[in-house]
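To: structure subgroup
Subject: Chain for Friday's discussion

All,

I'm putting the inputs and outputs inline so they're searchable in the archive.
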Amino acid sequence: MVKRLTLPEYIFESSWEVCNKVGGIYTVLSTRAKTLQETNKDKVIFIGPDCWGDKPCPYFKEDKSLLDDWRSKAAEEGLVIKVGRWTVPGEPIAVLVDFKPYFVKKNEIYTELWNQFKVDSLHAYGDYDEASMFSYAAALVVESYYNYCLDDETTCVYHANEWMTGLGALYIKQKLPQIGTIFTTHATSIGRSIAGNNKPLYDYLFAYNGDQMADELNMQSKHSIEKQTALNVDCFTTVSDITARECKELLDKEVDVILPNGFEDDFVPTGAAFTRKRNAARKHIFEIANALTGDTFDNDTLVVSTSGRYEFRNKGVDVFIESMNRLLRDSRLEGKKILAFIEVPGWVGEPRQDLAERLKNLKSKKKAEPYDSPLTLPLITHWLHNMSHDNVLSMLKYHDMWNRKEDRVKIIFLPCYLTGDDGIVNLKYYDVILGNDLCIYPSYYEPWGYTPLEAVAFKVPCITTDLAGFGLWANSVFGHNGELKDGVKVIHRTDYNYSEVADFIKDTVIEYAQMSDADRKKCRAAAEKLSKKALWKEFIKYYYKAYEIALSKAEARKKILAR
């Protein structure tokens, strides 16, 4: 007989990215919300920072009738909150809390944290104080709600995401021991810092001391709160096997459960709508490329891209450019045109007015024929504040890649968030990605990797590496290293094989360019098939296991306290 998991009656979950779309964790939480709502209808309460003040939050709909009795009590206690619903599928309850009032007692809060858990806040800088005050405020929200609305017989868990919410998890552990605590690190702060500082992470992982490296890289406070939270919560989790190894070595704590990142595919168009949107995206992409470079592109052009956060080495943007440079000089393209996009948000200034004017002319048919001459600097769609110091532009210039008309490979930097209102593309990211033929994510440091998962959901085969959690997961599903025919090509990457990876990418793009339409169709079908295995209905069981571990430890504490 299969043992039935014990699920909590209430789930409180906090993150800096609740109703605050700034990174991949937003996607993790917002897509999982629908599944949790199905099991714990309106007993899943997300807590996020009120970053908006008097301005409306575009991801949140306030509802003053929700939890109205408690809201009055919270106001009496000095909590400044907004209660409403997160405008994502499932529309879970969300509480946005103003954390700014707690800065005046920052030193008192940090002193208590040191006395109870030995968390070092002395070396704090940057976003540490802001995150910590939010984390503290989020814990106060849970404490207030629990004390007013619930009792010791109600089973609850508090789920904290990333080091930014660690302080709150420790507060709950101390003040409300009857609540089970879960902490998820989506990437260790010190691991990301080691990789971002161009130090070899993987070959020397066994030899690194996390505390020592935190001192060396000036990461003491973030590392300290992350490590102490991992050591003290009831259930410590991360998102992939590769990050679990990182946690063991750098935080001195093995994870209890791995929580892979799933998603919902209800945003993916189907049937005729998919074809229509794909064709529209490709037409628009080609118009942008023509207006910028003066070259023309037909539907036989192979469109490739990379995207994600602007972490030049960690996300493999450098090796993507290197591979395109080598592709440019490879004779096997046989006349095939490649249009490559780098879609990572830089320090963007404003959309190029000369490009916007050309696009307007093309759209309004004022221009009867495509443009046959390039604009100045035909590499970028938006001006940057740091044009002379940008890593992408600097590397393109170093390789003498100027999108000349005779170049079979054109590479275009799109340095803005694709939210539909950037002034040039004016399409949302999901409406752009389905215009691709192949997506490339040659990550060096990638705990999971939503971008390749999103690509395959839109039937776009992709290239990733086995240093990405998603790449390792794909290999485990296939039972071998992924190939294009599987929908995902998984390249072996190490600390030192940069050049080899660039060649593998170049050769894979050529392989795909030379495929017949029938073989490409099979690759696209395989990509879509793989994406179905990563839906939340497949991955939510790992969260249920984490909830059960946290609840069992909380229950054991309650029995001890009752003696």
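Points worth raising on Friday:
The first helix runs from residue 24 to 39.
The chain has a mean pLDDT of 95.

D.
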